[in-house]
Amino acid sequence: MCGRYIMAKAIGDLVAEAEAEADANLELRQSWNVAPTTDVPVVLERIIDGQLHRQVHVARWGLVPGWAKELSVGVRAFNARSETASSKPTFRSAVKKRRAAVPVQGYYEWKKEGSKKRPFFVHREDGKLIFFAGLYEWWKDKAGSWILSTSIMTMDSPSSEEPGVLGELAGLHDRLPIPLDRDMMARWLDPEQEDGEGLIEQIRSEAFDVASTWTMHEVDPAVGNVRNDGPELIEPHRSLF
C-alpha cells in the first residue's frame, strides 16, 4: 500500500519534470508527511480544442466516484488494487477514461518486526520525482461545487529473491505503489486510450524495472504522527531494535 508520502517541490519544478502546464494561480502546499484526504498534485491529460494538454491539478487524495452520496466514500479509496480496479464500482469508470499520475519525492512504508513497526523512506537514487500510476474522478457536493479526487494504483511487491532494492522492498511490505517511466506515463495518461485493463497489465509488467532505481533507509518514528511535518522526517535514523 501507499499511505504516506512526500511532495515538497515547487510548482515550477513539478511542471518541468512532468513536462506539463499549470494554472498561473495554482498553489501547492509543501509536505514531508502527506496523508490521505489531503490535497495533492496530480498530472492528467485532456483534449482541449482538438489538442492534447498535459496539466497539473490539485486533487483530494482518496477517490470519490461520481455516484457517491458522501465525500467520506473516498477515505478508504486512497489506493486501488491493480488486480481488481477494472471491476470494482469505485474505480472501473476511471480505469477506462480518467487515469492520472501522482508525483511524489518518495514514500514511507512501515516494516513489521513482531510487535514493532519501523518506518522507511523509499525514493529515487537521483532525487528526481517518482510518478505513480493513479486514477481520478470528479464529484459534485450538495452545494454544487466540483471536487477532484485521486487514488494510487498498487500491485504485489517483488519476490524477496530479487537482487538489490527489489528484494528489500519485498521485505518491507507485500504491496507496491506502481511507478511509471516517461514512456509508460504518456500511454497511461492518454485519454484516447480506452483499454484500461490492457494498460494496467503494461504498467504492472514494467513496474519492477522502474523501482529498481530506488533506494531506501530507515527514518524516525515521528513520521507516524501526521502532525509532524518537516524535512527532518526523511533524515536517516538508526533503530534501537
Automatic annotation (TrEMBL):
Organism (species): Glutamicibacter soli
Please identify the protein, giving its name as recorded.
Abasic site processing protein
PANTHER family per the UniProt record, alphabetical: ABASIC SITE PROCESSING PROTEIN HMCES, DC12-RELATED
Question: Which InterPro entries does this one have?
Answer: SRAP, SRAP-like
Protease keyword on record:
yes
Q: Provide the GO MF annotations for this entry.
A: lyase activity; peptidase activity; single-stranded DNA binding
Q: Does the keyword Lyase apply?
A: yes
Family membership, please give it.
Answer: Belongs to the SOS response-associated peptidase family.
Q: Which UniProt keywords apply?
A: Covalent protein-DNA linkage, DNA damage, DNA-binding, Hydrolase, Lyase, Protease
Residue ranges annotated as transmembrane are none
